[in-house]
Amino acid sequence: MLWITCPTCGQRPVTEFRFGGELPHVPDHLTDEADRNLDWVWMYDNVDGLTTERWFHAAGCRRWLTLRRDTRTDRVVA
Amino acid sequence: MNEFVETILDLTWHEPKRSYDVVIVGGGGHGLATAYYLATRHGITNVAVVEANYIGSGNSGRNTTIIRANYGIAESVRFYQHSLELYATLEEETECWIMHSTKGLLWLAHTEWGMRAERARTLLNQACGAETVMVTPKEAQELCPQLDLSGGGRYPVLGASYHPGAATARHDRVVWAYARGAMRRGVHILQHRPVIGLLREGDRVTGVQTDAGPISAGVVLGAVGGRVTQLADMADVRLPIRTHPLQALVTNAYAQGFGPIVSDSELLCYVSQTPRGQMLMGAEFDSQPSYSMASSFEFLQGVAAKVTHILPFLRDLRVLRQWTGICDISPDYSPIMGATGVDGFLVTTGWGTWGFKAIPAGGEAMAELIATGQTPSLIASFGLDRFAADHAMADQGSAGTR
């Protein structure tokens, strides 16, 4: 099970949190403004490895947090 | 394909070549069906299917084997209805037993919102050629006597939509049927051959790089499940895909027999019986994207709580196995098929939790696209360019998950 350390509440199980999505990241090689907008709105890095993402502690302090997670193991790293 | 399968199937293995007209990356249902239809419908047999593991080792061997067409947007209903019809004649066509069994599917509603959604689904399905009708709670219980119409007191059944054409088939056998049919006609299947790069000349994709050397191709089709973002990245193609784990489980055998497939749009779970008698069930995919195939206790807990509300007899059964597949979830819960904007590189992806039922129609349409260069009208709405055109095909309510 994925455990998340909330800055307010400490280590809590994933079932208390709502996933808030990966941080948007538009690649530098996209230079056209329309291409950049399309990428920002729809595309995902969908990283196989370390990803930076937002979580909401819905059944706890109800605050947002940002963390790093390894998607290969589904474990929080920082 | 493992040794046991080879003893029951009559297979023709080929020496790999350095060049093919078409290279399909991913030996799952969609990749193999595309190869099969290229060979049978279009006479294109200079084709290789390149699979990193053994065929059917990904999501084609991990799904809950449900075939249905009761979707919520017209384009999807037509597409999946065609697929359902192709499945119904697949045994005859391939001369392989896929254990196809028409069971019907009940989609339960517990709220007035749910009833509205099911009524809308019923009307749309009828207008688009799929058979779906509304049934009362009493009629639902006649179709499935095990149903608790009070929903354990918390989820009373107000009604249901019933889709009599829904079926199940043995997923491995579907993969093997297409593989055998394709191989007999000269298609090469290369197992245990991971693709580690795409060959590129200028703006074109001209083949694949494998750990055993390059293979050049006129067209490369990405038909992988789970790792499509990494494959597309090799061609600098960005995809609107998130990879989420989806779990499922089977119980020990339920000897009394269980008729239809039962699905629930509010509890978001689905239950059917396998030909062995085991009860097969699944629920929502994990909330966070991940490539881990670890099974979790939260899933067991969650799915058990849901299904026992509507089917209390399941409390007396034991969980035999639990497993996970990693699914390509598209933002609008519809597939993405066709051109990528890079010449020589096509994808069939975004199959999320709904890919198994689409194998015949998806393979047939991709084969037609590769053979003729024209996108068949059946899949014209499902191109990657729909996002730039602001024509997302939103149909989350029909995925049975969220």
Structure keywords:
heterodimer; A: 78 residues; mainly beta; Folate-binding fold; 4-stranded antiparallel β-sheet; 1 helix; B: 402 residues; alpha+beta; D-Amino Acid Oxidase, Chain A, domain 2; 8-stranded mixed β-sheet
Explain this structure to me?
The complex is a heterodimer of chains A (78) and B (402). Chain A has 78 residues and is mainly beta. Chain A has a single domain, classed as Folate-binding fold (2-Layer Sandwich). Chain A has 1 helix and 6 strands, in the order βββαβββ. Chain A has one helix at residues 33-42; strands spanning 3-6, 10-13, 18-22, 50-56, 64-70, 75-76. A 4-stranded antiparallel sheet of chain A has the order 3-4-5-6, with no helix packed on it. In chain A, strand 1 and strand 2 form a beta hairpin. The two termini of chain A are 16 Å apart. Chain B has 2 domains: 3-62 and 171-240 and 331-398, 3-Layer(bba) Sandwich (FAD/NAD(P)-binding domain), CATH 3.50.50.60; 105-164 and 242-329, D-Amino Acid Oxidase, Chain A, domain 2. Chain B has helices at residues 3-8, 29-42, 74-88, 90-94, 112-127, 137-143, 171-184, 228-233, 297-310, 359-372, and strands at residues 19-25, 47-50, 66-67, 101-102, 105-109, 133-135, 159-163, 167-168, 188-190, 195-201, 204-210, 213-222, 242-253, 261-264, 269-273, 278-282, 319-329, 336-339, 345-349. In chain B, 55% of the residues are buried. Chain B contains 10 helices and 19 strands. Chain B has 402 residues and is an alpha+beta fold. At the A-B interface, strand 3 and helix 1 of A face strand 13 of B.
